[in-house]
């Protein structure tokens, strides 16, 4: 006999919609987990979903012979923008397999190393901007990291300069993307008839913002098509020329466009938020700041930051891992039983909880990565020491999953890592920082990702007198 899975009682028709504030859904879901425990049930958008927050349950769900990624909730809504792209495809969709095969080498370690100079170019723009600002100009931390990561992914993946550091307003892609992500979140919890027939004003704006994003990506692709002799090997070239090694099949223009949009979405907000959260700890924990800066001084000194330095910053790297443990910037991943198994139901939790065919099981990463059974009573504390290479490699399987699961895990992980290490090394080498509001309390803002809100700081050039 399986157990009844608890959860707040919903209302007829609308289910638990009132239990989740779409503007703050991740934190709402976390609060419900505190009340109901490691697994609970909610009826959202017309279907009953399970929400899990212990490492043991997530470990079981990570078994790819039984479960796979489910594209549901906000992600399913994102298919309105990028259809069967790498990020939004169902695992059994044909296009996912071709795109994955074609893009894996283009995201491999060698290819990412080749992107170092372009990442350095964009990172230098941020350093220059902050140096010119001087110590009295308040910096909106998340906003500038968004400029950095958007420009880096656009340059490295499609050789396009968005020049965000040279404009007051960011590229229109960002505004449209933020609106689309926010609306996708809201659409996910509303019943479909409300989305399509009642909220007509929101629908019109949603479609308009999607069109803006597609237009920006189309212009880039058309320009590249107009220059067939273009030599540089970036992700766009890989998508245009790449063929499935077995079948010889390539990607259609529509698929290329969908994936360009995905790189721009998935490739910047998550990394920008990682850097912003890490900065929260640099700004509020003098011990962390001192150790991180001392590491940069010792390893790099005053000379140029090079590719070779990237593997020599263990303390900063541990801090990044610990940041993603406490604040997984893509905060949920959703599983369901593999459709090809053709089973009506299965169980998790040693036979205790039933999961029926097609039922979404959402892993709440913020809670799961603070599971006291793995991390102890101080799980909520930021302690880079617990994430040294040695300790990290010895962690129980699937207790740290900010990059998702298995074959559907993040393809851009090495990109994000190199980019983050590089910018942190350059910033710590050149500046000291202090919060604008010394009493700042961490506020978490959410779209599809989470990031710190309203965090401002001052950056002062170091005099390098040691
Ligand atoms: C998938 C997190 C950076 C591109 C994912 C998933 C997570 C994730 C959790 C799985 C999503 C799911 O199961 O629904 C992160 C984090 C990042 C980051 C925390 C930075 C700190 C990047 C970058 C890129 C990227 C820089 C592109 C350059 C993708 C793509 C997928 C993905 C295309 C879908 C892969 C597939 O399903 O085959 N990411 N990501 N991500 N990410 Fe990232």
UniProtKB/TrEMBL annotation:
Coiled coil: none annotated. Heme binds at residue 410. It comes from the Eukaryota. In the N-terminal section; belongs to the cytochrome P450 family. This is Bifunctional cytochrome P450/NADPH--P450 reductase. It comes from Emericellopsis atlantica.
